[in-house]
Specification:
This protein has 1491 residues and is mainly α. The chain has 55 helices and 9 strands.
């Protein structure tokens, strides 16, 4: 019924929660999900548990019910242990005593003096009460020791057997008193507070009710704190004086001394405190034994000389003193053994070396951790392996409470005991090394060299010399490794406590029962058979711990019936998982020790030498040694904590008192020094990264002692405050080191392999640059449950936050550095971003970090509703518009932009940021390697830079970039239009000279007509500069388009296996034998020899077909429907054609005078470009520029750059972008053929080709001056090079956009009706071409040489004003300017009627035929007499302003530019108003032939 009701309730709960049981959900919420990472910290439990109490809670009162003869000794032991518990509180109080009087202000006036004294008295009274309790306790302790000693020196006491626990308790009291004595002498704050209390008590004594009593107590306290007889060690001297009054005390003290020596030699201790207590007791017991040296003849012979007494084994003592010259006292207090021994009355200076006053190298090496480190590592690895196997077995098999598990329980118990032994030994090694360093600080002169500011010893100098500068890096690393081994083993033992506890108790119970029920049967049999008195003590020992069970009684005849033939007796007892009580164990060990101890057997007591056989003594001693571990195994938790407690590494109360400091800074704290060393200094021999949390566990030990041992909250607060600061520093340093390490790895892996190989083979220093050391950072940084001072901290999340911030900071630094540099550093920026991304990906394996795209987008400020473009995009665009396009020159052969010599548009950039940390950018290790590699990509702009730009801004931002560049191109074109129109109107008319004039003659004509334009001041800085920027913009877009096409091709090549690339057999075969496609042919050959190459050949054919289509791979269905032109550059050319459309009418002559084309004074753009390209490179230009480097004064902030004038060639200054601009305009306007036919430079080159082909020339015809001939030859060479560049630009536009621009002009010619008409037309043209000319006869008045009259220069009035030089602003993208939507104009189709138009003459073909030079020259007309003529241009004519509809307005803020002077048209013959000017460069040619 109940089950049904419960099911109904669960059904209702399920219905209410949507099918999910709340009970199951509750279980799920309570489930502890462990992290899949190793544990790197000691176990810290919020709730501790113990198998038994660490002390005897009932103070041995249960001994009354136990059969024993050691009742009085047990009572005395209980009294001594109570005294020890009380004295321990005084030790803790004294060690943590801080002066209160220093913090209390002194009274300043009489009015407040009384009240302040009263309040000061109230504050100091608790402190004085502590001192009074200490004084009372030392008196009480001395009285108890004196009483115990008097009971032991009596005759009855000497005949009784003294338990070893009794002597051990007295030893503890003596050690406690000497510890209190040293603390009292060390604490100067006791005297400080008492002195202030004394003054205050005298001032307000009359106002206190018990003032007289307090005054009397004050006198006693004054004698206690500053005793004139014993200024130091007052407590110990009082004890010594009290014991010297007891006769025979030396014998008892010598027995205690021998027992302690035996304990030390046989290692009958299992905690560091027990070991050092035994060692510290030796010199103090010797002081108590040693007699006084005086003039009393009565006692001179009876005084004991502890250094010569034969009852004391001097050699054993000297060995211990030499082995342990320094031992820990308490906390950071150390004790030097020989210093204590020097206070003995019989001490002689000659004993110094014998008693360890001068330790040798072996002893010093024993105190160094490096000596024990290899042995500790081997033992740790061996034991941890065996213990891990045992814990796995314990977790696999369930505990069985049976005798069959006894053997395994013994194995587990011995294993745990060995672990305790190892922990105790390793902890003692660390503490001994620590205290050796405290007592042997760095020398002051060396301290100053190490950089200490307190080398003189003032302030924190003493603690710095002992801690901070006293450890080498290797010693710190070894200490960290040893601490980690101690804490890791302690953590393993603590974790296994619940599993091993039943086996331990089972083993101890069986051992006790086996000893008293089985192993004691033979001695009982012999004692009964021989009627020895020892049978009663043996029976008492048996009844003390025997467990006969609740139903059975003790057998009375089992030992009587025993026979030697029975052998070893196996005890049959009830299996229990419980151990003996502390009193039972103490009494049992005392009785066993009393039976086999040789000292006790020689006495007259209950035992004699004949009572026990030798084998019985061995049996007793063996059990005594084995039972030593019982109390430690049962007290598992306390033993484990005592053996792994390293809180002494933090406590510094002694040095605070010594230096007078309130507290030391964090850099002097040894736990933090070790933690910082783990992060900053790691050696491959000592991998310490995983030991961070083990080292910080010293703070847990110190905090536990402060709360539960010292009971001082202020110490815990200090530890907590330091730990908070330390943990913040740990997180910072750990994240910093992890980021630097992974940054170095990423930078090393990103280097070019060839470059890395060269670095590896150069020097070791370079090899370190590219080979970062391996570090194990993943496991420590993945810790999510770090337990410190009871708090659980997610270290992984904290480090992830710091590294996230470092990633943002790193990207910000790279971006700011990029913004402060020119665009050629874009490769540096791209490499840095790749390294940062790889660093993030490596750290993301164990840290929760933001995605790199999110990081970069946030730093780049490219996210958000109001974000127009990112910072990187704006810097790329700004650098292109303001720096690259105006200040760089393009080289079409290398496809690179290089900086022009003269900077016409200086750029102001922000100051480069300084890295505040070495891991920013490329990291500390590979920074130099990357600096050397990045130099190869700086100073120019090429294809690799465009690839980096696309990687940074992404392909989605390319349209925005190109759109803004085209907007800037429109502005440049508008500015250039005004200048070009002005130059066009001032351009003199000129027909192409005849071939017969020769190279020099033709060149001379063009040179005389066009050179005046070079005097136009704004020709190069404005006109050439504008054309350069237009050309640079176009080639940049072209190169960027090629990079995008290549990327698309690579991506789609990888996608070939996933797309449809099927081709017909005929299509593939048509490509097999095509010599233009070697890839397909090669694959076809492979196919013939292998059947596996079919697919490869098919893919090659598909690749070829796509390349033919548009340089990319697309699926077969899409290939049939794709547009013919989809490249970015094609869209730019289309956009340029739209921009030219308003200027097309003014740059094209639609109505030529001859009906065909204008040959002499054409207004077409090709004629203007012909003149500009002719002048390009003739004369170097002079440019006024400033240094582009940052020459800013740091103090004043003003620029110190000076202007300078540079003489630079046109090609170096303007580059090949000038020709690209001309080719683009001519291509878009459709004037290519007319340009090739009528170009001045091309005509000169054709004449040169004609001269080279015509080997026989008429003598005296076309000859010119030698200098002019050389100039013409040089000009021909220059223009040949320029023609190649121009042809490359034309081919570029023909290949990218052949259908963009005006259609070629179609002209129809009607042929002559007959041959006679053709001959008549030919003769008429020949007659019209003959013009007589004479050699010039004008001579100079001075020397009679002929001097040509130079053409008039352009005056300032005729020069057009320069347009504004300020760069146009970058316009935001507009949908109207999208190049994707632009369509080329449809081509104009010529009419089909009539014969086809004649072909235009090609510049590359042979020159037209000329009359033979061997025949006579054409006859000169007789009517024209030879005369001196001069050819000079007509005076400049007025410039007509173009119509508003045809010419764009000039830039804002400037007047329209004035054109150069325009020459009037002239016919052959002398002009009106004077004789015709002569042409000196045409000397010897008939004047009638001048056209």
């Amino acid at each position: 019924k109940r089950k049904a009701q419960k099911m109904e309730v669960l059904h209702d709960m399920t219905a209410d929660t949507g099918g999910v049981l709340s009970e199951d959900a509750l279980k799920l919420s309570k489930m502890n999900v462990t992290d899949n990472v190793p544990n790197l910290q000691s176990q810290c439990l919020a709730l501790e548990f113990q198998m038994r109490s660490g002390t005897n809670g009932i103070n041995y009162q249960d001994h009354i019910g136990l059969p024993t003869d050691f009742g009085p000794e047990i009572k005395a032991t209980a009294e001594v242990e109570s005294l020890l518990a009380e004295g321990a509180e005084h030790v803790y109080s004294l060690y943590t005593f801080r002066s209160v009087g220093k913090a209390i202000p002194m009274p300043s006036d009489e009015e407040t003096k009384k009240e302040l004294n009263l309040r000061t008295f109230q504050v100091l009274q608790p402190q004085i009460a502590k001192i009074k309790k200490l004084m009372d306790f030392q008196e009480k302790g001395i009285i108890i020791i004196e009483r115990c000693m008097r009971s032991l020196v009596t005759k009855e006491g000497r005949e009784r057997i003294v338990p070893d626990g009794y002597y051990d308790a007295i030893t503890k009291v003596i050690d406690l008193l000497q510890k209190l004595d040293n603390l009292k002498d060390m604490k100067a704050s006791l005297s400080t507070d008492f002195a202030r209390y004394n003054r205050v008590l005298q001032a307000c004594r009359a106002d206190l009710e018990n003032g007289d009593q307090l005054a009397q107590e004050k006198h006693q306290l004054q004698l206690f704190l500053s005793n004139f007889q014993y200024p130091k060690s007052l407590i110990f001297h009082n004890l010594r004086d009290a014991l010297k009054k007891i006769d025979g005390h030396e014998e008892v003290l010598i027995e205690m001394l021998q027992q302690n020596i035996d304990y030390i030699e046989n290692e009958r201790y299992l905690t560091p405190d027990e070991k050092y207590r035994l060692i510290r007791s030796l010199p103090h017991l010797m002081l108590l034994i040693d007699g006084n040296v005086g003039n009393d003849n009565k006692n001179r012979g009876r005084e004991t000389n502890v250094f010569k007494d034969k009852r004391i084994k001097q050699s054993q003592l000297q060995t211990i003193f030499k082995q342990y010259p320094v031992v820990p006292e308490y906390g950071d207090m150390s004790m030097t053994m020989v210093i204590i021994l020097r206070r003995a009355p019989h001490w002689d200076q000659s004993f110094e070396k014998q008693w360890g006053g001068e330790p040798d190298k072996k002893i010093i090496a024993r105190y160094l951790l490096s000596t024990h480190w290899p042995e500790i590592k081997a033992k740790h690895a061996d034991f941890l392996g065996r213990f891990s196997k045992a814990t796995t077995e314990l977790a696999t098999y369930k505990f069985c409470k049976a005798l069959s598990a006894i053997k395994y329980a013994a194995f587990v118990s011995r294993l745990v005991f060995d672990g305790f032994r190892h922990l105790m030994s390793w902890t003692c090694t660390v503490l001994e090394s620590y205290h050796w360093k405290l007592t042997h600080p760095v020398a002051p002169e060396l301290l100053e060299k190490l950089g200490s500011k307190n080398a003189s010893g003032s302030g924190t100098g003493a603690y710095e010399a002992a801690i901070k500068y006293n450890y080498s890096e290797r010693e710190r690393g070894i200490m960290v490794d040893v601490i980690s081994m101690i804490k890791s083993l302690a953590s393993a033992l603590a974790t296994a406590q619940a599993a091993v506890a039943p086996y331990i108790r089972l083993h101890i119970h069986h051992e006790c029962q086996q000893f008293v029920m089985g192993e004691l049967v033979p001695p009982l049999h012999r004692a009964h058979k021989r009627s020895r008195d020892i049978i009663q003590p043996l029976l008492k020992l048996r009844r003390l711990v025997a467990d006969w069970g609740p139903t059975s009684a003790e057998p009375q005849d089992d030992y009587i019936k025993y026979s030697r033939q029975d052998g070893k007796v196996e005890a049959k007892h009830i299996v229990r998982v419980v151990g003996p009580s502390p009193t039972q164990l103490q009494l049992m060990r005392t009785m066993v020790r009393a039976m086999y101890d040789a000292r006790n057997q020689t006495k007259r007591g209950i035992f004699s030498k004949k009572d026990l056989e030798k084998e019985d003594l061995v049996l007793m001693e063996d059990f005594y040694n084995r039972s030593l571990s019982f109390q430690y195994l049962l007290n598992y938790s306390d033993t484990l904590r005592a053996n792994s407690d390293l809180g002494d590494l933090w406590y510094r109360e002694f040095y605070l008192e010594l230096t007078g400091q309130i507290q030391f800074p964090i850099e002097l704290s040894l736990p933090w020094i070790l933690t910082e060393h783990i992060i900053r200094h790691q050696a491959q021999a000592i991998p310490l990264v995983e030991d961070i949390l083990y080292t910080m566990d010293a703070y847990n030990d110190a905090a536990h002692r402060a709360l539960y041992v010292l009971n001082q909250r202020f110490l815990y607060d200090e530890i907590e405050a330091e730990l908070n600061l330390v943990f913040d520093q740990l997180v910072f340093l750990a994240s910093d080191y992890a980021y630097s390490h992974h940054k170095n790895n990423a930078a090393s892996l990103s280097l070019d392999e060839t470059y890395v190989d060269r670095l590896r083979h150069t020097r070791k220093a370079h090899r370190k640059l590219v080979e970062p050391p391996a570090r194990r950072l993943g496991i420590p940084l993945a810790q999510r449950r770090v337990q410190l001072l009871g708090r659980v901290i997610d270290l992984n999340a904290l480090i992830a936050q710091h590294i996230n911030a470092k990633l943002y900071k790193d990207v910000e630094f790279c971006l700011r550095k990029f913004e402060a540099s020119e665009l050629s550093t874009v490769i540096d920026f791209a490499r840095a971003l790749i390294i940062v991304e790889q660093t993030r990906n490596a750290l993301a394996e164990y840290l929760d970090l933001d995605e790199f795209d999110v990081i970069f987008a946030e730093v780049d400020e490219s996210v958000g509703p109001s974000a127009f473009a990112g910072r990187s995009m704006m810097h790329v665009l700004g650098s292109l518009v303001n720096d690259v396009l105006p200040n760089f020159s393009y080289n079409a052969l290398t496809r690179r932009f290089v900086r022009s010599p003269a900077c016409l548009k200086p750029v102001d950039r922000p100051k480069a940021p300084k890295a505040d940390h070495q891991h920013l950018g490329y990291g500390a290790r590979c920074q130099r390697a990357y600096d050397m590699a990045n130099k190869l990509s700086r100073g120019f702009l090429g294809i690799p830079h465009y690839v980096a730009i696309i990687q940074i801004i992404g392909t989605l931002a390319v349209p925005l970039l190109v759109n803004n560049l085209l907007t800037n191109l429109a502005d440049r074109l508008e500015i250039a239009k005004a200048y070009l129109d002005a130059i066009t109107e001032g351009l003199p008319p000129c027909k192409l000279p005849k071939y017969m004039y020769g190279l020099a003659g033709v060149y001379g004509v063009f040179d005389a007509l066009l050179k005046p334009i070079l005097r136009y001041a704004d020709l190069k800085p404005e006109v050439f500069q504008a054309l350069k920027e237009i050309g640079n913009t176009l080639v940049f877009i072209r190169d960027l388009s090629d990079v995008l096409n290549r990327d698309d091709l690579e991506r789609l090549i990888h996608a070939v296996p996933y797309i449809d690339t099927n081709f017909s057999i005929n299509e593939k075969k048509s490509l097999d034998n095509d010599s233009r496609f070697p890839l397909v042919s090669a694959v076809s050959k492979i196919e013939t020899s292998s059947n596996d190459a079919t697919e490869l050949a098919r893919l090659a054919a598909a690749l070829h077909a796509d390349i033919i289509c548009d340089n990319s791979i697309t699926p077969a269905p899409a290939r049939r429907n794709r547009a013919p032109h989809t490249s970015l550059f094609y869209g730019a050319v289309v956009h340029l054609a739209k921009l030219i459309e308003p200027y097309r009418e003014s740059w094209s002559s639609n109505n030529p005078t001859n009906g065909v084309m204008e040959l002499e004074a054409a207004t077409d753009l090709h004629r203007l470009w012909s003149a500009l390209s002719f002048l390009f490179g003739l004369q170097p230009g002079k440019f006024e520029t400033t240094n582009s480097k940052d020459d800013t004064d740091e103090k004043s902030g003003t620029s110190t750059a000076k202007k300078q004038t540079l003489t630079v060639s046109d090609e170096a200054q303007f580059g090949h972008g000038f020709f690209v601009a001309g080719a683009a305009l001519i291509h878009v306007l459709g004037q290519r053929y007319r340009y090739e036919a009528l170009d001045f430079a091309n005509h000169v080159l054709r004449v040169q080709m004609y001269e080279a082909s015509a080997t026989n020339r008429a003598s005296g015809v076309g000859k010119a001056d030698a200098s002019l001939n050389d100039d013409a030859t040089g000009f021909a060479r220059l223009k040949t090079y320029h023609k190649r560049i121009f042809d490359m630009a034309v081919a570029m536009f023909d290949a990218a956009a052949p259908d963009v621009g005006a259609p070629p002009l179609s002209i129809k010619f009607k042929p002559p009706a007959s041959d006679a008409d053709l001959e008549e037309i030919t003769n008429a043209k020949r007659r019209a071409s003959v013009v007589p000319i004479q050699r010039p006869l004008s001579t100079s008045a001075n020397n009679g040489t002929s001097t040509p009259t130079p053409p008039p220069a352009l005056t300032k009035k005729s020069q057009p004003p320069a347009p504004p030089k300020q760069s146009p602003k970058v316009a935001p993208p507009s949908p109207k300017q999208n190049v994707q939507n632009s369509k080329p104009p449809p081509p104009v189709k010529p009419k089909s009627s009539g014969p086809p138009p004649p072909a235009m003459p090609s510049s590359s073909g042979p020159p037209p035929p000329m009359p033979s030079s061997s025949g006579p020259p054409p006859p000169m007309p007789t009517s024209v007499a030879p005369q001196v003529t001069q050819v000079k241009p007509a005076p400049p004519a007025s410039v007509k302003k173009p119509p508003a509809a045809k010419k764009p307005p000039p830039p804002k803020g400037k007047k329209p530019p004035a054109p150069p002077a325009k020459s009037s048209k002239s016919k052959a013959g002398p002009p009106a108003g004077g004789p015709r000017p002569s042409l000196p460069f045409l000397a010897g040619i008939n004047a009638n032939r001048v056209d």
